[in-house]
Write a structure and sequence with these properties.
This protein is an alpha+beta fold and 189 residues long. The chain has helices at 4-14, 21-38, 43-69, 77-93, 138-149; strands spanning 98-100, 108-113, 152-160, 170-179. Helix 1 (4-14) runs parallel beside helix 4 (77-93) and helix 3 packs across helix 5 (138-149). It is globular, with a radius of gyration of 17 Å. The N and C termini lie far apart (34 Å). It holds the Pfam family TRAPP. This is Trafficking protein particle complex subunit BET3.
Length: 189
């Protein structure tokens, strides 16, 4: 997995259709604003919906990632973290978060973002509980959905977000819950 970073760079340069980052940012902002309005500023529900949307996106993005990169199967959770950060985020968002804060058992790590294209031009609403909104929570869902498709059940949640507090980095904590067994559909032995 030592060449993972170069795979991400290569796919970004030559195999990925690109869109204007400002268009993406503004479109995503409109989606979040509409969810906030639809859920009447209930940020817990907005966070849940963003996670659900991300999960469904992740279920599909992993197929494109595997098809375009030809990455070998990850041997352990550390390899998986490298693939997520250095290939997945690079390929789809042109960013490479830092992997840090590994747990002793190597079943948890953090992705720390120095830049976040989704959070450009963002100001949280002037509401008392607006700090409960994890603006880029779609990322957590994408990670969960993509990794579930490769037989890894994980939890992904925000620890901090520069949108909420610019003095803090944006950090997502990813925890391996379990390795899923390949399941044979009922009646097909």
């Amino acid at each position: 997995m030592s060449k993972v970073r170069s795979v991400g760079e290569e796919v970004w340069k030559h195999k990925t259709d690109k869109i204007n980052s400002e268009l993406l940012t503004l479109t995503y902002g409109s989606i979040v604003a509409q969810l906030v309005a639809d859920f009447d500023h209930d940020y817990a529900k907005v966070n849940k919906q963003l996670d659900k949307m991300g999960y469904n996106i992740g279920l599909r993005l992993i197929e494109e990632l595997l098809a375009k990169t030809g990455l070998p199967r990850c041997q352990n959770f550390r390899d998986t973290a490298e693939a997520v950060a250095k290939v997945g985020f690079k390929m789809f968002m042109n960013i490479t978060p830092t992997i840090s804060n590994w747990s002793v058992d190597s079943k948890q790590f953090s992705l720390v973002f120095t830049e976040n294209p989704l959070a450009e031009f963002v100001e949280l609403p002037d509401k008392p509980n607006a700090r409960d909104l994890w603006y880029s929570n779609i990322y957590a869902g994408v990670i969960r959905g993509a990794l579930e498709m490769v037989q890894l059940q994980v939890e992904a949640e925000f620890v901090s977000d520069a949108v909420q507090d610019p003095s803090l980095p944006t950090e997502i904590r990813v925890r391996l819950v379990k390795v899923l067994e390949d399941e044979i559909p009922p009646g097909e032995d």
